[in-house]
């Protein structure tokens, strides 16, 4: 592992086993992703609907790369008990600020795993009569065990089925401030719980 990238997070030393996606790769992929999104919404106003809290870091880096008229709203999706590593039933709160009727909505989340979260939020947006609903995730986990899951329209990186933290992603609401996408050391860390 390249220890130089750990300079800013010595507080987590010993808890992280590896860097899966270093910050430099995130930055360059964000430029490409933003270009794809900008081309798709050219001439339109975009309503970004961010899934709290995991999408915060990704969202803030992404929207500053979009040369579009962007409105921003948030939803909160509570999908699993704090220390669990698989989502269970999903409840959605929000959007908090806007009526989505007639808007071109881009749901932005940190990661597509089972797809339950995106499915629940996309169905809320469709129910609110959005003009269009698309989805954007930074990470998409390979899940060969699932027969079907909602597709994501824009994807940063495909990753293996590891539990990852950093760049907004948490475990027990920690590690969100790590600048890289990392694997956790210890029970369940970096592997399926
Ligand atoms: P899904 O509903 O199973 O697709 O899970 C999506 C949500 O679970 C994401 O919004 C994340 O908050 C969370 N999640 C899934 N996998 C991970 C992970 O590896 N690390 C941190 N959070 C995860
Ligand atoms: Mg989430």
Textual characterization of the structure:
The model has no long low-confidence stretch (mean pLDDT 89). It is built from three helices and nine strands, in the order βαβαβββαββββ. It starts with 15 loop residues before the first strand and ends in a 9-residue tail after the last strand. The longest helix has 18 residues, at 23-40. With 193 residues, it is of the alpha/beta class. The protein has a six-stranded mixed sheet with strand order 4-3-2-5-6-7, sandwiched between helices. It has a three-stranded antiparallel sheet with strand order 1-9-8, covered by helices on one side. It is globular. The chain has a single domain (23-159), classed as Rossmann fold, CATH 3.40.50. Strand 5 (104-112), helix 3 and strand 6 form a beta-alpha-beta unit. The site of magnesium ion (MG) has 4 residues, from strand 5.
Helix content: 10-25%
Enumerate the strands of the largest sheet in spatial order, edge to edge or round the barrel: 4-3-2-5-6-7
CATH architecture: 3-Layer(aba) Sandwich
Instruction: From the alpha carbons, calculate the radius of gyration and give it in angstroms.
Output: 16 Å
Structural class computed from helices and strand pairing? alpha/beta
Largest sheet: 6 strands, mixed
How much beta, percentage-wise? 25-35%
Bound molecules: inosinic acid, magnesium ion
Ends distance: 23 Å
The count of DSSP E runs of length 2 or more, i.e. the number of strands, is 9
Treating each run of at least 4 consecutive H or I residues as one helix, how many helices?
3
Overall CATH class = Alpha Beta
* Gross morphology: globular
Q: Supply the number of structural domains.
A: 1
The low-confidence runs, each spanning 5 or more residues with pLDDT under 50, are none
Look up the CATH topology.
Rossmann fold
SSE series: EHEHEEEHEEEE
**Mean pLDDT reading:** 89
